[in-house]
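Researcher: Please translate sequence to C-alpha cells.
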Amino acid sequence: MNTLEWLQRLIAFDTTSCNSNMELIDCVQDWFLHHRIHSRLTHARTAAKANLFATLKAHDGSTEGGIIFSGHTDVVPVDGQQWDTHPFEAVQIENKIYGRGACDMKGFLAVVLALVPEFEKLTLSQPIHFAFSYDEEIGCQGVPWLIADLQKAGIKPKGCIVGEPTDMHPVVAHKGIQVFRCEVRGLSAHSSLTPHACNAIEYAAKLICYVRELADELRRRGPFDQHFDVPFTSVSTNRINGGTAHNIIPAQCEFIFEFRHLPQVEPHEIIDRINAYIQDELLPQMQREWINAEIVVDSIATVPSFESSEETAINHIAYAITGKDEIRKVAYATEAGLFQQAHIPTIVCGPGSIEQAHRPNEFVTIEQLRRCEMFLRRVVSEIVN
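Model: Translation complete:
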C-alpha cells in the first residue's frame, strides 16, 4: 500500500485516547509480519492498549544501532467539534487529506509503513526500528514502557526521529509539561451561615490568583529563550469544578493547572513555590476557619523537556537533508524528551502543521507527505544504508 492508502486505513481506526488502539496495532503488526519483520508489544495496566516496536534487521542480522522512526497511535477527541467531513474517514479535497490524526500524527505513520517494502529491499548496514506508542496525547503514558523494554532487551539505537507535525522543519527543543490536580476541602453550610463554614471555592480562587501571579512573574522576569515561539515558562489554570447549589457554601473545589517550562528551568522550583504558599499562608488561613481544612495537590502528568545537542549526527543529517538552518524550538511537548533521557539522540521532524492538530477539519497536505517520504529515504541512505 502507498502512503495515501495507509493514511486512509489509519484514520479509519478511532484511536481516541479513551479507546483501545489494538485494531490499529494488530493491522500494523500483520504488515510487519508479512514483510518478515519481527515486532514486540508492550502493555501497561490494560491489554486494551499496546506499544509496538519492530526492527528491520541489518544485512548481517544485527539489531544493534540504527535509527528509530517513532510516532504515537492515539488521537484527541472530536467531541463538540464541528467537522465538514466525517472525522474518521480520510477525505481528499484538492491536495489535502482531512481526518482526525491526519497530521497528528498518522500522516507520519502512513509514510513510514508505506516505505517498509522499499526499505526491506536495501542492504542495510544498520537496522531500522519502528516505534508506535499509545496514550501520548494524555501525558506520554505509553512510550516509557516501550523504552524500558528496549533497555531490558539491550537494544541501543543510535538515533530517533519523532514524526510530530513540524512542516518538515527539524525541531531541536521543546518545553516540558507538568500538570497538577488541586483539591481544596472546606466545610459546607447554608449560605446564610457564612461564619460556620469554610468556603472551598474562595480559597481555591486565592490559590488560582497566586498561580496567575507566578505566571506573570515568569513572563516578566524570565528566564527567556527567544528561539521558542513562547520564549518563557508559562503557567495556567485550565479547568475548575466546585459547589453544589446557589445557597450552599461549597465544601469542595477542584481545579487543574499546568506549567510548560523551558529546558533550563527545573520544574520542581515552580511547584515548590506553590506548595510553600499553600503551607505557609493559605492553609493556615483556612484552618483558622475549620481545623480540618485541606489542600491536596497531585501530579497527573509529567512530560520532560527536550533539547537536542547540536553535535549529534541526527541533527546534522536532518538539517542537511531538509536544507533548513534556522533553529526551531516549540512550546508543545512530544515523546522526544523520553528518548533523550534514554540516551538516544533524537530530533522532531514530521509532515503537517501543528496549527492543524487537535482542531476540527484537521488535515495534512499531500506535498508534506511526499516531502516526508523523501526525507526518510535520505535519512536511511545516510545512516543505515
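Researcher: Any highlights?
Model: The longest strand covers residues 176-185.
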